[in-house]
Amino acid sequence: MTKAVVVVGTQWGDEGKGKVTDYLSQNADIVVRYQGGDNAGHSIEFDGNRYALHIIPSGIFDKKRMNVLGNGVVFNPKSFVKEIKELREKGFEITNLYISNRAHVIFDYNLVLDGLYEEELGKNKIGTTKKGIGPTYTDKVARRGIRVADFVSSDFETIYRDKLELKNKEILRLGGEAIDVEKSVKEYKELADIVRPFVIDTIYYLNSEYQKGKKILFEGAQGALLDVDFGTYPFVTSSNTTGSGVSNGSGIGPTKIGEIVGVVKAYSTRVGSGAFPTEFEDEISHYIRETAHEYGVTTKRPRRIGWLDGVILRYSCMINGLTSLSIMLLDILTGIKELKICTSYNLDGKEIFELPARSSEWERCQPNYITLPGWSEDITKCQSFDELPLNAKNYVKKISEICGVEVGIVSVGADRKSTFVLKDYFK
Ligand code: IMO
Ligand code: MG
Question: Which of 152, 182, 250, 347 could serve as a FRET partner for 103 with CA atoms 20 to 30 Å apart?
């Protein structure tokens, strides 16, 4: 039986997971999102067009392929309807998608509360995307959430009125403006009518398709360092972004997973607050930001830029159980004379090779670097590893050596075609 393939981010998100998922999905039957919500921003380019996806999986562009939002996802019906409308305007009618009846719904009150909780934190704020992700996962774990099955049921109005009354009290307590109940009820009932046809029990669906031998690709959102358990807590998102989130978020058991592809950006970026040891700000970081357009797809915020961090990559490989790497945005480094990779930190006068647990310790970590010579040749047309200039090959080999994991994919440009694959996935 072909085992499932998983694509995960190894850093702080925005590694290029959308591009890898789109690429690998050409050989998959089903693409599944298993965690997160529309805090994600995955961009895909082909045939001269660029598409930004937030909640819809990156396998959507081919009708032969099914796409699934698993039970571990938090689902905002408003953004979903907006996204399907935008795709329709670009010529893609969304019919190849299922939504889990067990996924939790993000309502407006969770967006409002996301903003108010951030304000309450003041200078300690997380820097969230304000998409209501944290408050919705909080409701889920506190057992007071509303799931998709409830949302599309005939009981919805009663359930929602009770919930909104409580949430409005909380909003008022924090100094916010209460949500208009009648208007909101009407709006969500209309949205439920649009969402209902997409809803099924995706747990049975995915397992039955797996039994038939269908190839399933899981698309992670965010990255390992944003994982609520493994990341730079509390500056993280509220879900398990790593490989272990797949089973909880889809109902596909761990033994059915064969490959876990770690997506590595050739340098580092981070949006939102929190420690970032290899961060730097000079003309090179400025060059990287502008060349790669390192601005959030979801929030448009400028991303913070840093050198590649080997301490983080080793950790990411370990906690994800990665079986291969996908190196992204290598072309962005073209023309930079010397490239740095962090291999350890100094913390309070001591060299360390492991990530500290406490955020305050993270903040004090100073990076120790090795320096590799850069390359100046245009690599965007390279179609194999052999075609890369020597210094680019060495840079890629170094990443693989640090991780102890083989490189399966290299991306040398934004377009689908600017990619080469060194490994046979879904064999
Ligand atoms: P993709 O899938 C980068 C960050 C936010 C913030 C923290 C918590 O495109 O890689 P949240 O709204 O999730 O509660 O915010 O996580 N964050 C991301 N950063 N890429 C993402 O997704 C992100 N999703 C959330 O900036 O620091
Ligand atoms: Mg993104």
Answer: 182
